[in-house]
Amino acid sequence: MLLQVDNISLSFGGIKALQNVSFSVDEAELFSIIGPNGAGKTSMLNCISGRYTPDEGSIKFAGEELLGRKTSERPEIGIGRTFQNLALFDHMTVLDNIMVGRHHLLKNNFLTGMAYWFGAQKEELEHRRHVEDIIDFLEIQHIRNAQAGTLSYGLRKRVELARAIALGPKLVLLDEPMAGMNMEEKEDMARFVVDLNQELGMTVIMIEHDMGVVMDISDRVMVLDFGAKVCDGLPDEVMANDHVQKAYLGAEFDDDIEADTQKEVA
């Protein structure tokens, strides 16, 4: 087991974003989190990545407690992520944006940098070779020298994924990697997500609204609603859940739960 989340609760004033949510993710698993808008999905990723501090609960990564550790330490221990809203440096090239993802791996300090030709240059070349491998993997060779801000939305999402995996993470958190894409772009991104999981061996936690993609590529799926866990399991098991069918498939609602469950995923 790579990640163990136990009884995580998070609130903002009187709003309960997460309520006693528990789940686990095995190493090399592709685990998806789904739920209506406002269900707490991104809040959960923010707790794992350190952007939010839960009110209570525990998050263990590779057996070690994450809570209490600095956000900046998460990449160092093997956690990378992408965001709903693109966070690229628009004025920088694709290559340089991806190189940023290698920053925490640089071992040379100011003194060794003074002796550039005796160490730092070799290190930089090694990192560039790694980045070039990622560029090949994600099939973005043709834009490697383009400024990120000039690219189409789908390509920018791909560059952000490249930067996240440039960290060399054991776990990568993908927050709606296919949002806003056309069908062809979605198919490409889904293929890359599967490949980085199966070929590169990275564990993936993904938030995604496209139910077809989620059910097709995920090993397991967890459903959140109003900050609470509804269920988790194999894709077929989750889709058979009554609450999930009512929320996603438009089934008839019982009177006693209609007010709490009638939602559509945007």
From TrEMBL:
Task: Enumerate the Pfam families for this protein.
Answer: ABC_tran, BCA_ABC_TP_C
Keyword line: ATP-binding, Nucleotide-binding, Transport
Question: Annotated Gene Ontology MF terms?
Answer: ATP binding; ATP hydrolysis activity
SMART domains attached here? AAA
Q: Name one GO cellular component term.
A: plasma membrane
Per UniProt, residues of the ABC transporter domain are 3-251
List each coiled-coil range: none
- What is this protein identified as? ABC transporter
